[in-house]
Amino acid sequence: KNKDVVYNFSAGPSMLPKEVLKKVQMELCNWKNSGKSIIEVSHRSQDFELVLEELEYNFRFLLNIPKNYKIIFCHGGARGQFSAIPLNLLGNYTNADYINSGHWSYAAAVESRKYCTPNIINIKNKCNKKILIFSMNDWKINSKSAYLHYCPNETIEGIAIHEEPNFENTVIVGDFSSTLLSRVIDVRKYGVIYASFQKNIGPSGTTVIIIREDLLHRSKSICPSILNYSKLLQSNSMFNTPTTFSIYVSNLVLKWIKKKGGLKEIEKKNQEKANLIYEMIDNTDFYVNNIIENNRSFMNVTFSISNHSLNHLFLKESYSFGLHCLKGHSIVGGFRASIYNSMPKKGIIKLIKFMKIFKKKYKK
Ligand code: PLP
């Protein structure tokens, strides 16, 4: 019976709401009774333009995005933004601050070296086997930097920075790839927010950029047109053919979030789901999570088993139990349960049930 329902804990592309998938299935071959599939219609058609408009409206509604912020949808994923950010924001500056809290924030800093000298600020420390993250007050930022880049949710390590930035006269850039739409944020604290879609937003392919309009005039002349924010905006995110399918599905996902009560409700549920797993882990020495409580991610729960020789069995048996994609990223090993908005509480309960059964079976 346990095999009946499969829960997908993949870090991305990840689970989407079942309701959304059913609607996509219904409309796939006959969108809006047009006799055509959504993936066959022109992005220049009025019907598709309406979808794009609606998607932008839904982002504005859910995140309460002020009027002086523009929204861009483009290709290239979050990695594309690792180049686009310096190319669009450096202007005449030669330095930028990059917070290093884990794999993705460091990767962004490394890419930026092609365009500037990053001031890499390490905020991770280890104390008594626990990973600690410095509070924002202790970040040593450089006043001569064009911007400060950080990643509020390190998808691989399961590290989150829940604090919101409060730096005066600094342009804050956030890689929100694995946290956008999972909780309430104050967009006004940021100059640029970007996220690729394949976690909380929809199918892979699209990246969203939310940018304060006064930052739109700092691009370098060498910036490729396809990454140039002003160009992308002038063409209404249609400088080249947009990722129509991903845009269509994500619009349905955003409508689903609205139906669920918006980000306040979603945030409550996400915290509750994650805390159930952390509580289970903390109540035993069989499973370990070594991140300080304040900086544990509500999106990616990472853990290991003290006895590493059981890793293979854990993955094999969890899969048979209907719990898929729990393998941790190869950089950190162990396990990772990615529990984005679409993961129902039932999936969490089933995971905890399995973890308890497994512990009982193998604990010496
Ligand atoms: N940044 C974060 C926080 C991520 O989680 C990922 C992918 O998992 C990336 C960047 C890279 O995203 P993409 O594959 O869309 O380039």
UniProtKB/TrEMBL annotation:
Q: Name one GO biological process term.
A: pyridoxine biosynthetic process
Residues the record lists as binding L-glutamate: 44
Domain Aminotransferase class V, by residue range, is: 6-348
Q: Which cellular component terms (GO) are annotated to the entry?
A: cytoplasm
Its UniProt entry gives the catalysed reaction(s) as: O-phospho-L-serine + 2-oxoglutarate = 3-phosphooxypyruvate + L-glutamate; 4-(phosphooxy)-L-threonine + 2-oxoglutarate = (R)-3-hydroxy-2-oxo-4-phosphooxybutanoate + L-glutamate
Say where the protein is mainly found: cytoplasm
Q: Name one GO molecular function term.
A: pyridoxal phosphate binding
Cofactor remark from the record: Binds 1 pyridoxal phosphate per subunit.
For this protein, the Enzyme Commission number is 2.6.1.52
Q: Which domain of life is it from?
A: Bacteria
Per its Swiss-Prot or TrEMBL entry, what cofactor is needed? pyridoxal 5'-phosphate
Intracellular or extracellular location(s)? Cytoplasm
Q: Which residues take part in binding pyridoxal 5'-phosphate?
A: 78-79, 104, 155, 175, 198, 240-241
Indicate where the modification N6-(pyridoxal phosphate)lysine is found in the sequence: 199
Keyword terms of this UniProt record: Amino-acid biosynthesis, Aminotransferase, Cytoplasm, Pyridoxal phosphate, Pyridoxine biosynthesis, Serine biosynthesis, Transferase
Name the pathway. Answer: Amino-acid biosynthesis; L-serine biosynthesis; L-serine from 3-phospho-D-glycerate: step 2/3; Cofactor biosynthesis; pyridoxine 5'-phosphate biosynthesis; pyridoxine 5'-phosphate from D-erythrose 4-phosphate: step 3/5
- Function, in words: Catalyzes the reversible conversion of 3-phosphohydroxypyruvate to phosphoserine and of 3-hydroxy-2-oxo-4-phosphonooxybutanoate to phosphohydroxythreonine.
HAMAP family attached here? Answer: SerC_aminotrans_5 (MF_00160)
Q: Provide the assembly information.
A: Homodimer.
Family indicated by similarity: Belongs to the class-V pyridoxal-phosphate-dependent aminotransferase family. SerC subfamily.
Name the record gives this protein = Phosphoserine aminotransferase
Supply the source organism for this entry: Buchnera aphidicola subsp. Schlechtendalia chinensis
